[in-house]
Amino acid sequence: MIEVVDKDFQETLAGKNYIVDMHAQWCGPCKALAPILEQVEKETGIPVYKVDIDEHDLLASKYGVRAVPTVIFFKNGEPVETIVGFVARDRFLEAARKLV
Predict the structure, then answer these.
(1) CA torsion angle for 36, 37, 38, 44 (degrees, to 10)?
(2) What was the pLDDT predicted at 8?
(3) 93 vs 23: CA distance, rounded Å
(4) Which own/partner pairs from 33-37 qualify as long-range (CB within 8 Å, at least 24 positions apart)?
(5) Eight-state DSSP code of residue 35
(6) Which of 86, 90, 15, 10 minimizes the C-alpha distance to 51?
(7) Are 69 and 33 in contact (CB under 8 A)?
(8) What phi and psi, each to the nearest 5 degrees, are found at residue 19?
(9) CATH class of the 2-97 domain in this structure
(10) Which residues are catalytic?
């Protein structure tokens, strides 16, 4: 997983399929979710980017993040699905497979 900053986000990822993990360092469920998203990335080949909402509040605000973890799935650079909270691995895998 790759950490992303505000200014690079749109330019780097425009037109691509990817997953964004909106998280916070202090968030226990976010830490528990990290290995699950790593597995999803390995199984699907869809890259996962991490955005710390405390450091990059502009991105969090832009995508309406009100709770963490929030995972946003992008197809062709556009958000197509959002999962809020810690849910089963299969749910993340199902959403990621729609991007392939």
Answers:
(1) 110
(2) 63
(3) 18
(4) 33/69, 33/71, 33/86, 34/1, 36/89, 36/92, 37/1, 37/71, 37/92
(5) H
(6) 10
(7) yes
(8) -120, 140
(9) alpha beta
(10) 27, 30
pLDDT of residue 34: 96
> CB–CB of 6/49 below 8 Å?
no
Q: Say what the pTM is.
A: 0.90
Per the document, the length of the chain is 100
* pLDDT tens by residue, 6-50: 566 666 677 789 999 999 999 999 999 999 999 999 999 999 999
Q: What is the pLDDT of residue 58?
A: 86
- Between the CA of residue 97 and those of 14, 17, 47, 81, 82, what are the distances in Å? 19, 11, 12, 12, 14
